[in-house]
Design goal:
The protein has 927 residues and is mainly beta. Among the domains are: 376-605, Methylamine Dehydrogenase, Chain H (7 Propeller); 610-689, Sandwich (Immunoglobulin-like); 698-780, Immunoglobulin-like (Sandwich), CATH 2.60.40.10; 787-870, Immunoglobulins (Immunoglobulin-like); 874-927, no CATH class. Strands 1, 61, 64, 65 and 66 form a five-stranded antiparallel β-sheet that branches. Strands 70, 71, 73, 74 and 75 form a five-stranded antiparallel β-sheet that branches. Strands 80, 81, 83, 84 and 85 form a five-stranded antiparallel β-sheet that branches. A hairpin with a 4-residue loop joins strand 42 and strand 43 (426-430).
Length: 927
């Protein structure tokens, strides 16, 4: 029997982000050679830092490492110093050494964090409410420099808002202290306030932006327009010609930019421009789109970037035309989603204009009004700045129709339009399309949500649970919901009323209780939390018989009126906090309310089919036991995958994705993968697997012979173990590859050759691969040339004389064998020489046998010597005269012997001559 291990998630059609809305409230810019950076603001709603690699066309969030505490993503200033990027946040100064991929906190002792950075040589200056700080190590550490500001005695320090360098003179604009300048790189500062106003006036003025043109310095103020200081002088001149004192004020300068021969101002009344020398005169610049409110001006190459209420814009024609440059910038916080029917969708932002999509979120356009549009009776209604506005042209134009309270939200039932006033515990109703409004009656607290079942109205409150009206909102009474915990969400399907409790104001003393259900119009309530992962409910919405709940633990769905809940978070790595749920078309839409994180509107399909069978599973069918293996199928968006493996296999990564990693066990069986989405399980795919145990490959070799003669071939045979069906053999001679892929190898070795073979097993599961065999050193002996020749000391002897023979040999080795032959018969003599008394005509020869192993020929036969033996002659010497000789005679030749030619011997005889003097006196015999 085969057992299986599996990982399976709940079925859930995947959530996907729509294409926006994008944008954000940008406070500052900086750039290096590769990237443009933008810092967002908004206090606790700041979204950190974004980066663009394509000159603002697309943006990516780069806030990893910034503080998640309050204000930690609120960026007041950015700078580049060396190769580092520096950011001033609501929780400290941070630096990045990798273009914003990660951030680290700097060593900064100031109580307040800087509003402005400025590069002076290799130093980075930082100014803010804590005065002046300087970093000489690219933002890692900061040193205060506040001891030498003219007129200020520490702890009194300047609140610095701007810097500019004019030649070698550095200027600092402040709040309430005028303008300072330094000629020694910030060590000492003197005031340069001539012409800027009296001491009393300076105490209320802000010099928030500075610029330089040539040798002139320009200072933008928050109400007094622009001042100019010529050639580093001591007295400023107010340059406000063309800047009238109006409301909104052109003299409220937000940003000042010197470009070419002009000075540009972004003000509360638009963009103004003046020549930068001589007599200055400002003229308002026509911009397109005309409704844009331009903020900070940041030059980049030939372009200018600006912050606006809707996000970053870029101008390529010196402020005349602006186009959006915030694609991908998730700097907005969506707080509500609604629809005007059809494909029209609205997203309201916590601060700023609403956004509209006509294609279910594939694209978004910014609206022309702040607030949350509500569609009723073919009109759009919106609350903005204490007034209710109405549009009968789908938001193109708006009519101010009624002044009301604050933070108004709308609901409707039938022909009645309702407005809940969150500040004043009142629900107003209108039956004339919003022209007139009447307050409902009843004692209740802040209204958080509303719903209706076609007959009755239900409203969730801050402290009184759910209240109800049975007369179109004229009168309201309490239901019996037993809780004082805020009811943030109410929904009904006609049969049941559902109330979601929430810690609406993040009160540490409040613990939400989840979801209540009533089937009797609020007379009794029951908690229905089975399966809910979070009791803090932000939103509820019905789609047919399915009820969706947005919680701080993600999205849950109930198909049985709340009896049980299923998590449907697929598509989110972190559970979303959906405080707004909305069904439109075939989609359900949600927001994700996380103040420190911007996010788009998300959507999920509400109908569809189960997934098709996955394609073939890829991965080894004979994996090695104990190895890590990956098995996968082609991924289909919106589909999760449940994997089943043999019992002792362990899933280590991948979970419910299309690709999983496992540790292989020893059990054989099948791998099953089942696709799932919100509509159910699709058909499974199967792969049969048979794990293979590990083999220990080995190989040994033998030689057909060793200690051989030079030139002799030797055959080597390999014996493999664990080589598999197709092993690979690589032979080596003295470590050099040789031979072919064969278990047998033959070659003619040289002396001292070392032969081995390497085996590469074809088995998949081996402990080591390849492996080496034993080594065989070869002994090869050179071939000896064996020769033998014999010679005789003297031939042609008389019979009876001994004849002596000698052998001359080569290649005999240390123990050669001599075999002398006479007339073909072995004499048995084993010596280099041989002696005997031959007969005439004897044939003497030698067979010589070498003791060497390797010879060219062995044994060898010598030459043959023919013995010449003469018979003994009859010798006579008949006469020798005189036979008496005097001693003193000189010599006598000896002749007369028969046969002639013999040799005479005797005392006194030499060369056949007798010498008497030599012989001496006496009788001598001569033969």
């Amino acid at each position: 029997m085969v057992f299986f291990q599996s990982i399976k998630t709940l079925n859930a059609q995947s959530w996907e982000p729509t294409n926006g809305p994008y944008g954000g409230q940008v406070q500052c810019f900086t750039e290096n050679e590769t990237y443009l950076f933008a810092g967002t603001t908004g206090g606790i709603f700041g979204k950190g830092i974004f980066r663009s690699a394509d000159h603002g066309a697309n943006w990516t969030a780069v806030s990893n490492g910034l503080s998640s505490n309050s204000m930690g993503k609120d960026i007041s200033a950015l700078a580049v110093s060396g190769s580092n990027v520096i950011a001033s946040t609501g929780q400290g100064i941070y630096y990045s050494i990798n273009n914003g991929n990660t951030w680290s906190v700097s060593s900064y002792a100031g109580v307040n964090y800087p509003n402005v950075f400025y590069n002076v040589g290799s130093d980075l200056f930082a100014g803010g409410m804590s005065g002046l700080y300087i970093s000489s190590d690219n933002g890692l550490t900061w040193t205060p420099q506040n001891d030498n500001f003219q007129g200020l005695v520490p702890p009194d320090v300047p609140d610095i808002r701007s810097f500019v360098l004019n030649g070698t003179t550095l200027y600092a604009g402040t709040y309430r202290k005028g303008i300072f300048r330094s000629t020694d790189n910030g060590l000492t500062w003197t005031t340069v306030n001539g012409g800027l106003g009296t001491v009393l006036q300076l105490n209320s003025r802000t010099f928030g932006t500075l610029g330089v043109s040539g040798t002139d310095v320009f200072a933008g103020t928050s109400g007094q327009g622009v001042f100019r200081l010529i050639n580093n002088g001591t007295t400023w001149t107010q340059e406000v010609t063309g800047l009238p004192a109006a409301n909104p004020s052109p003299r409220n300068v937000i940003s000042l930019l010197v470009r070419d021969t002009y000075v540009y101002l972004s003000t509360s009344a638009g963009i103004f421009r003046s020549n930068n020398s001589g007599v200055m005169s400002w003229s308002i610049q026509a911009v397109s789109p005309s409704e844009l409110a331009i903020g900070i001006l940041f030059p980049s190459g030939t372009d200018i970037f600006s912050t606006t209420r809707t996000g970053v814009h870029i101008s390529a024609d010196n402020t005349a035309t602006w186009i959006p440059a915030y694609n991908g910038m998730l700097g907005l916080l969506v707080d509500g989603i609604s629809s005007a029917g059809g494909t029209e969708l609205f997203a309201s932002i916590n601060s700023g204009n609403f956004y509209r999509s006509s294609d279910f979120g594939d694209t978004w356009d910014i609206g022309n009004m702040a607030g949350s549009p509500f569609f009723f009776n073919n009109n759009l209604f919106i609350y903005y700045n204490n007034w209710i506005y109405r549009s009968n042209d789908n938001g193109a134009t708006w009519q101010q129709i009624y002044e009301i309270g604050t933070l108004t939200r709308f609901s409707s039932m039938g022909t009645m339009l309702f407005a809940r006033i969150t500040c004043c515990e009142i629900i107003f109703y209108s039956n004339d399309n919003g022209v007139t409004w009447n307050p409902g009656t009843g004692a209740f607290s802040q209204i958080l949500s509303m719903a209706d079942n076609g007959t009755n109205l239900f409203a969730g409150t801050q402290q009184q649970g759910v209240i109800m009206s049975i007369d179109n909102g004229v009168h309201w009474t309490n239901t019996n919901l037993p809780t004082e915990i805020p009811v943030r969400a109410v929904a009904t399907n006609g049969t049941y009323i559902f109330a979601g409790t929430s810690n609406y104001y993040e009160d540490p003393n409040i613990n939400p209780l989840g979801i209540y259900r009533s089937g009797d119009n609020g007379l009794s309530w029951t908690l229905v939390n089975n399966g809910l992962g979070s009791m803090d409910i932000g939103s509820l919405v019905f789609n047919g018989t399915d009820l969706y709940a947005g919680t701080k633990g993600g999205i849950f769905k109930s198909a049985n009126n709340g009896d049980s809940w299923t998590l449907v978070n697929d598509g989110f790595s972190t559970p979303p906090n959906a405080t707004s749920l909305f069904v439109s078309g075939d989609y359900i839409f949600i927001n994700n309310w996380v103040p420190s994180l911007g996010g788009p509107v998300y959507r999920k399909e509400l109908s569809g089919a189960v997934p098709l069978q996955p394609d073939a599973i890829t991965g080894s069918v004979t994996p090695c036991v104990g190895t890590s293996q990956t098995y996968s199928v082609t991924n289909v968006p919106g589909v999760t995958y449940a994997w089943l493996f043999p019992a002792d296999w362990v899933i280590t990564a991948g979970g419910n994705t299309n690709s999983v990693t496992v540790t292989v066990g020893s059990a054989s069986g099948a791998i099953l993968v089942t696709p799932s989405n919100g509509w159910g399980d699709g058909p499974s795919q199967l792969l049969v697997v048979t794990p293979a145990p590990y083999a220990d490959p080995a190989i040994s070799i033998e030689a057909s012979q060793n200690n051989i003669c030079s030139g002799s071939p030797v055959t080597f045979s390999a014996t493999p173990v664990g080589g598999g069906t197709a092993p690979i053999y690589q032979w080596f001679i003295n470590g050099v590859e040789s031979g072919e892929n064969n278990p047998v190898y033959t070659y003619i070795p040289e002396n001292n050759d070392v032969v081995s073979v390497q085996l590469t097993s074809s088995l998949e599961c081996v402990t080591i691969n390849p492996v080496q065999s034993n080594s065989i050193p070869m002994q090869v002996t050179d071939v000896a040339i064996v020769t033998a020749a014999i010679s005789v000391v003297q031939n042609n002897l008389c019979e009876g004389n001994e004849m002596e023979f000698y052998a001359t040999t080569t290649g005999g080795g240390s123990q050669p064998v001599f075999n002398w032959f006479v007339d073909g018969e072995s004499t048995g003599v084993n010596a280099e020489s041989f002696s005997y008394i031959p007969a005439n005509g004897d044939l003497i020869s030698l067979i010589f046998t070498s003791s060497e192993l390797c010879t060219t020929e062995n044994p060898v036969e010598s030459n043959t010597v023919v013995a010449i033996i003469n018979a003994m002659p009859v010798v006579s010497w008949p006469v020798f005269e005189p036979d008496t000789i005097c001693e003193n005679e000189s010599q006598f030749p000896l002749t007369g012997g028969i046969p002639e030619g013999g040799v005479y011997t005797g005392t006194g005889v030499s060369d056949n001559v007798f010498y008497p003097a030599v012989a001496g006196f006496g009788s001598h015999e001569i033969t």
